[in-house]
Amino acid sequence: MDFSIRKAKAHELDAVFSVFVLNQDFDEEYQFGKWQHPDTSFCVIHRLCVNPLFQNKGIGSTTMLLIEDLVKQMGFETIRLDAFFQNPYALRMYEKLNYRKVGEVQWRKGLFYLMEKKL
Questions:
Q1: Sign of the dihedral defined by the CA atoms of residues 67, 30, 99, 50, in that order
Q2: Of 14, 21, 87, 100, whose CA is between 20 and 30 Å from 51?
Q3: Contacts of 63 by beta carbon, 8 Å cutoff, 6+ apart
């Protein structure tokens, strides 16, 4: 595992399980992002996962909206994340939720897009 369980948050939404990691940790490659809001306080979303049995039913979007509310309550102004370039469902969801691509990084699995949204 490459993240600790204590950082994971789990939410049960109408009997559908989604999991995400939300913190202020990020890889050094994030420095290559052309962040549109560099002077704002931010959280980073890692590992947004929806049970495969319930994917493509809006659970990811609902979870993202809950995360955005949580981040606002925590006093942060911006959310940053990275998304695998070969995950069209996630990319479409983030774009519909007004996340903007601000860069690209190469990791072990391949190309990832850096994305950001000011709340």
A1: negative
A2: 100
A3: 11, 13, 18, 20, 48, 50
Instruction: Indicate the number of domains in the chain.
Output: 1
At 17, is the secondary structure helix, strand, or coil? strand
Predicted model pTM: 0.84
- Spatial CA neighbour of 89 closest among 50, 31, 44, 46: 50
CA 57, chain centre distance (Å): 18
Q: What CATH number is attached to the domain comprising 16?
A: 3.40.630.30
Q: Which amino acid is at 93?
A: M
The whole-number pLDDT of residue 113 equals: 98
**Structural domain boundaries enclosing 58:** 5-118
Distance, in Å, from the CA atom of 14 to the CA atom of 23, rounded to the nearest integer, reads 25
- Residue 62 CB contacts under 8 Å (≥ 6 apart), including other chains: 13, 18
pLDDT the model gives residue 10 = 54
